[in-house]
Amino acid sequence: PAVAESAVVGAKDDTTGQAIVAFVTLRAGESPSEARGEELRAHVAGHIGAIARPKTVIFTEELPKTRSGK
Fold first, then answer.
1. Hey, CA dihedral for 35, 40, 43, 44, is it positive or negative?
2. For residue 25, with 0-12 CB atoms within 10 Å meaning exposed, 13-18 middle and 19 or more buried, which class applies?
3. How many domains does one find in the chain?
4. What pLDDT shows up at residue 43?
5. Does residue 23 lie in a domain region?
6. Rounded distance between C-alpha atoms, residue 24 and residue 5, angstroms
7. What is this structure's pTM?
8. In a domain, 66, yes or no
9. How far apart are CA 29 and CA 27, in angstroms?
10. Residue numbers of the domain that contains 39
11. Domain CATH code at residue 37
12. Does residue 37 sit within a domain?
């Protein structure tokens, strides 16, 4: 419920070749923190699987969108 929207991308990783990076916008009233990032990483691992756990979570004010809002 804390996440308003998110996007994930692959990024170069020297150890594994590629790592998952999640960009997350939180809902109003929610604050970004290292603990929140760990909570989100654990949520993904628990619901999708450890292989999908983002290596990094980056909190943003908003995600870029096209003119159609996507």
1. negative
2. middle
3. 1
4. 97
5. yes
6. 6
7. 0.89
8. no
9. 6
10. 3-59
11. 3.30.300.30
12. yes
Question: CA–CA separation, 58 vs 18, rounded Å?
Answer: 16
Evaluate if residue 68 carries a pLDDT over 80. yes
pLDDT in tens, 8-54: 999 999 999 999 999 999 999 999 999 999 999 999 999 999 999 99
CA quadruple 32, 4, 8, 63: dihedral sign: negative
Residue 15 Rama label (left phi>0; alpha psi -120 to 50; beta): alpha
Q: What is the DSSP string of 14-32?
A: TTTEEEEEEEEEEPTT---
CA 30-46-49 angle, 5° bins: 120
